[in-house]
Amino acid sequence: MTSELKTATLPVSRVHMADISDILSPQPGQRQGMAGFDEEFVDIVDYILRITHRIWEEKNIGLVYDFYSHNCPIHTLAGESYGAEAAVQGTIKSLNAFPDRILYGDNVVWGGNDKDAFYSSHRITSTVTNLGDSEFGPATGKKASFVTIADCVVKENRIVEEWLMRDNLSTVLQLGLNPHEIARQQAASDRAKHEHFHDWRLGEIDRILAQTAPKAMTIPDQPDKDPEAYAKALVHELWNRRMFGKVRDVYASNAVYHGPSGRELNGHGEIIGNIVNLLAALPDARMSVDHVCAIPCGENGTDIAVRWTLAGNHEGPGLYGTPSHRRIMILGSSHWRIEGGKIQEEWTIFDELAVLRQVYGGG
Amino acid sequence: MAEVKLNASPQIESIHCAGDWAKLQRRVREDLAVGLIYSTYVHNCAFSGFQATPRGYGRDALIASWLGELNGFSEQTLNDIASFGASLGGQDTPLTFAMSRGEVSATNSAETVFGSGTGRKVAYRSQSACVIAGGRVQHEWLFTDNLHIALQLGVPPLAVAQRLAKLKARTNLPHWDFGERASAEGQTGPLPCELDIVLLKNWVDALNTRRLDHLAKLYTSDTQCLAPGGRRFSGAAEISRFWLSLFAAIPDGQINAQLTVNDAKQHELGMNWQLRGHHTGPGFLAQPNGARVTLQGNLQLKVTDTLIKEEWLMFDELDLLTQLVGPQGVSNSLF
Q1: Rounded to an integer, what distance in angstroms lies between the CA atom of residue A233 and that of residue A216?
Q2: Contact at 8 Å (CB) between B64 and B100?
Q3: DSSP letters along B45-73, please?
Q4: Collapsed DSSP state (helix, strand, coil) of residue B5
Q5: Which of A155-169, A186-200, B165-179 has the highest average model confidence (pLDDT)?
Q6: Edge-to-edge strands, sheet with B292-304
Q7: How many whole angstroms separate alpha carbon A96 and alpha carbon A131?
Q8: Which terminal Cβ of chain A has fewer Cβ within 10 Å, N or C?
């Protein structure tokens, strides 16, 4: 009862247009049911933002033991890890390489509830200086900024599963390193390992490619009414049915697209060109929508977060070079800002360095 | 002896309207109160328009950009500053779109992208646009007449552009060149823009459809226009002539309207716009090489009886030159 009274007073926190001073010091009082969570967290958005700040920026990495389950799977396109201990070790390595990393939380799109589990899609812009050796190579002393989207399932104060999409190719390029050399080395290392990761990835590709021939779907004209149906229809029509012209129906004419590896695009023509560019390299590719959640944005807008998987065979020239004939999988996430029924701004992130790694025979 | 409280709360100032923001710009430029940005901009603000950081992110990066700017061009005064804006309402976080303009006087006292400090005095126009919410600036666009600065410093613009192109290339990020080309030359012709502010829509449509006769009809007979490169135009004929020269150099160029402001009280309109096309015609001090170029521009209008009485137009021609002399031959490939 107490929880209900408290949640009636304030809306769930929003990140869009909020300053860090307000984000880190929310007004007390829970805004939604938070059974099983520490009392200090007013809602799931507050939980995600403050644990990220404490772990990464305050460098209390041991909090990972408190906020991740002991067997939490963390999925990335470069590989999978399990459990809080692996997360702690990975965080320490990353902080040694980029000790001044600042993680600007640009949005947290969420769904679910405290009873079943929350789902959060956290978009982060990071600024770093590469002062220590990293997974990419020796310290370069150079600065970089990159975007990450971290999707988490959260239950009773702990992250129980995570999908991490990071723009690693952009980082490597800004550090002045050779991504092809790195990808080749990673691929060689992958080939020397046992087959577990290969099995997982190839199984995922089979799941996605097994879909039947695409039939026409109607894209709902009110995305906020049923975001999941909207996202699935949009992905199906634009990506799987190759109806590129429908970009003109669902994107505003002056839409802005922020993508991996420095893709900053504007307007229908460039957004269409970007889809065609990727599908030309993977001509039989299919995209599967794996999760959708949405929150209101501003007065009449909606923010939709879509986690997706794209799989196809590298049979076409262009984006990823001469066809390698390898099976490629991409784990990605897109955040759409929708106003007036159309996508005004999009942020799409996937690890294109891990794609190169697959092109060179790894993954 | 009184105890010095190092952790005393800093003075909190906030931004709620175009006027507040214009005052802040003056304090930053004239009083060097750069730290005011901490309390008046959101921590993850986006900004663009500085030479060394064309697209920036975050309050710290913005402050760093201003420190470089004010060190290179010292003793700044901001003259003839004007601002206007419009609130979009909203219960949770009311939004305000604002625009400002002014003329900066400064001394080139230290190294900048133009080269070593020359000690010369310069005067140049600057226009800005921003989104305000929650008492803070959320996104800011700065448009500076950098070509005019180069000309006053006696620095060859092409040499500066080549230096800037090298700086840009340092990020190593690919230059993506996607999508339909020559949209003004398509079989169906240019599409009308979707703006609901009639005068701005007519302005964009007149330019995109190359109906410079329609453009001329949007102005009063005694209209005045300040344009990039220190240009001053009197009358619609000179304005049309300017656009003719630009589209001669970029024949397939199309303008895309972005942020718009309608301040009905002050009878002022504003718009951020983007022009994309290919340099296939004569102009811009460089031979046409087919380069795809993007101009980020800002337009501010004073309106009388639905006609444009005064116009302030700004885009960075030096940035345009930088695109022309930068690496070409894009393949949209990571190989």
Answers
A1: 9
A2: no
A3: EEEE--SS-SEEESHHHHHHHHHHHHHHE
A4: coil
A5: A155-169
A6: B231-234, B219-227, B307-315, B292-304, B268-278, B254-263
A7: 8
A8: N
* Least confidently predicted of B23-27, B61-65, B175-179, B249-253: B175-179
What pTM was computed for the model? 0.91
The tokens for A25 are 């010091």
Of the ranges B174-178, B268-272, B331-335, which is most confident?
B268-272
Residue in B with minimal Cα distance to A252: B194
A35 token code pair: 């059974």
Q: Say if CB A362 and CB A190 are below 8 A apart.
A: yes
Q: Residue A245 to residues A258, A268, B35, B147, B176: CA-CA distances in angstroms?
A: 20, 9, 48, 39, 20
Q: Does A269 touch chain B if contact means CB atoms closer than 8 Å?
A: yes
For A39-90, write each residue's pLDDT tens digit.
999 999 999 999 999 999 999 999 999 999 999 999 999 888 999 999 999 9
Residue with tokens 């269409």: A272
Between residues 163 and 182 of chain A, which touch chain B (CB distance below 8 Å)?
A: 169-170, 173-174, 176, 179-180
Which ranges of A132-254 does DSSP label H, i.e. alpha helix? 168-174, 179-192, 196-209, 227-235, 247-250
Q: Which residue of A has its CA nearest to B93?
A: A298
Residue B127, SS3 per DSSP: strand
Distance (Å) from the C-alpha of residue A249 to the closest C-alpha of chain B? 13
pLDDT in tens, B216-228: 999 999 999 999 9
